[in-house]
Amino acid sequence: MIFLDRKEELSRLNGLVKRGEGGLAVIWGRRRAGKTRLLTEWVDWHKGCYLVADRSAPDIQRRYLADALSTYLPGFNEAAYPTWAAFLNRLVADAAVRGFKGPVVLDELPYLVEHSPELPSVLQRIVDHDAKKARLTFAISGSSQRMMQGIVLNRNAPLFGRASENLRIRPLKAGYLLDVLTKNPVEAVAWYSLFGGVPYYWELALTSQLKNTVEAADALVLSPLGVLHSEPERLLAEEMPSASFARPVLDVIGMGAHRVSEIAGRIGAPVTALTPSLARLMDMDLCAREVPFAASEKSGKKSHYKIMDPFLRFWFKVVGPHRSLLSHSSQQMRVALFRKFEPALCAESWEELCRDAVPFLKKGSLGPEFGPALRYWTTGGPEWDIVAASLDDSTLLLGEAKWSRKPFNQKEIMKVSNELKSRGVPGKLQGQYKNIAHCIFVPALDTSFKTQNDCIAIDAESVLKALRTPD
């Protein structure tokens, strides 16, 4: 698959090399998000060295890495290295002699630290002194977010404050699906509802030559032989330390529980017992805590928890609860199950994409420019899908997101618009804004649709265009 986006991350990493002073870059984020591809593209551009660790014993790891380094530093593998200090000291010394400035990337660092807890302290000394003198650029990376945070971000960690660049890699923006799996914006939203922004999943669908979301869902996920059939279990188990203990929380959120009291009730545990699981899942970018627009971030009673990743939402709504059924179902039965859930999955992802796009829509699309959008809800009251304030605080945007693969015509848009307006303004926000703007977000508009002053309509093409990094 072609290398997509990461313009800002590459700009920062390239800047570190171009400064010619050496230094340390830290790259971390959830598994499958594209860290390795970013690092190999960067290394290849600068003719640097990419090393990847595994869970072998330290002596064996140093031998493997020495063999890899010998391509760039001839003779490096002719010696034995009893410690990481000996290994890194030789690396820096040889690089200085040969004028090799790197970057030297050490990927999956947590695997090494698991068996050699002294390694971060050794790296600290190397980065602070020897590498700086040699003007050698180092980069460390890892998918175990808890361990990477402990190694670099914890104030007591040896490498705290040493990184010249600290990059958290998140999934790709939805707009890039149009470069990979489809040219149709409506179908791109459907693909996003299945695989989110995870490039590894996109590549699986691409290389398997799966033509649509139904084929991809069945072949890769629903079938017991599918490569992603047990993916969530692997994601949790491979985290260091394992996050498998948090699995029940994902199960009940997937089944529709979003308030912490509901989650606790379905699991059969006290609310206080959920704190470690929820915190871990949020650290891993798998879950998120939502509060209504304009509510305090500390508002516990109004908080909702949701699964952030569309693929995991799909898995815990469709695969997890039906695992036994899927184990002996025909392809026809699996496809029927997916078709039953797909519209709701698409609708939820579409609504999220619309909110994400609001601050980045083409200037003038909504009138003034708006800040981040959120949902708004009250217990027992109406809900608004999209609420945002203009940057000058003069205008409140109220939006409704509707999903269908069929284009919406003028009559349908006006009906949705009238329903939206009939709800008025959320009670807490009444009288706070001079102007109220209404917008309907639909995947596609009928060719007969004509924009009217009191009814703005935005389609998937505009939303996905906003969800790309500007050139």
Automatic annotation (TrEMBL):
<dbReference type="Pfam" id="PF01637">
    <property type="entry name" value="ATPase_2"/>
</dbReference>
<dbReference type="Pfam" id="PF03008">
    <property type="entry name" value="DUF234"/>
</dbReference>
<dbReference type="InterPro" id="IPR011579">
    <property type="entry name" value="ATPase_dom"/>
</dbReference>
<feature type="domain" description="ATPase">
    <location>
        <begin position="3"/>
        <end position="200"/>
    </location>
</feature>
<dbReference type="InterPro" id="IPR027417">
    <property type="entry name" value="P-loop_NTPase"/>
</dbReference>
<dbReference type="GO" id="GO:0005524">
    <property type="term" value="F:ATP binding"/>
</dbReference>
<dbReference type="InterPro" id="IPR004256">
    <property type="entry name" value="DUF234"/>
</dbReference>
<protein>
    <submittedName>
        <fullName>Uncharacterized protein</fullName>
    </submittedName>
</protein>
<feature type="domain" description="DUF234">
    <location>
        <begin position="315"/>
        <end position="411"/>
    </location>
</feature>
